[in-house]
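Sesquiterpene cyclase
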Amino acid sequence: MSVEHEDSTARPYAGNPSGNLKELIESELYMPFPPLRNPHESEAAAGVEEWLRSWGLTDDPAVAAMIARTRPAELASYNSPTMDAGILRIVANQIAYQFVFDDQAEELGRRRPSRLLPMLCESIGILRDGRPPTTPLGAALADLHRQVEERCTPDQTARWAWHGREYVHGLLYEAVAQTDPPRIRIGLCGSIRSLTAGVEPFYPLCEAAQPHQLSPGELWHPAMRRLRRLSADAAVWIPDLFSAMKEQREGGVINLALAYAREHHCTLPQAVRLAIGRINRTVREFERLSEQIRPRSSPAALGYVDGMAGWIRGCYYWSRDVPRYADTATVPVG
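Structure:
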């Protein structure tokens, strides 16, 4: 399969940043993975629009505008550059769904965490018990579940649903955290962020994209479990850098950069530098560990690891240019 390469380089700004937060991130973040895009991106983008419209999720103009600013198919393309068109479309649909779900949960939970319970319980019922949906969001989730079942093995589908339930539970933890921001230290923020990241539900799709299934010994090897954790953390912490200004303005709490700002009583650029240090260490550990296991891994396992690396790479290149985080370029660095 052909893969489209971007013309930009992995680190476009050398030396000191020239004045804003976006340039600071681009200058100091370690990104060893080159930018790649899936050749089926335009098909996935059209498919996402059709799918969201079919379930009524973009009937609200505000939601439609959010999707336009967020570009879920572009994120899917960066994260999954070698996947076939069918799996890419599932990835793009799920990314779009999670952004809609996450924004609605954040709006409800910020007012009162208990208001989240009906929508979260509906999702758990669909993912765990196969209950019929009662809302448009629930209907979209049930359809995603159907799409995954059609493309994945039963074991892969079960892992997808389990990670999806973890994500749903994480949104309730986030809502509770919003009620008392000063208590949310970096460690607690990281624990909640690992749940709300919503990255790990995509790893069973990375499995399904391989020509052969991974053996249980490979899938559950301690090194592979560690790689999943490193990949998910790096993939979600990178957008935290670019979204920090947006989250700060909207009163967000579960964001790595903002957690550093609270704990160290420092400016946002200083906090971003601290967060970058942690991300760089995480990416370097992922890079070292993936190279260590490469000689003894099957082609399917290597492809799976490459899929996890894709989420690190993709979240960076997408975050850098997506309109959702355009404010990053307006924050001066002293």
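The domain at 15-32+39-330 is CATH 1.10.600.10 (Farnesyl Diphosphate Synthase).
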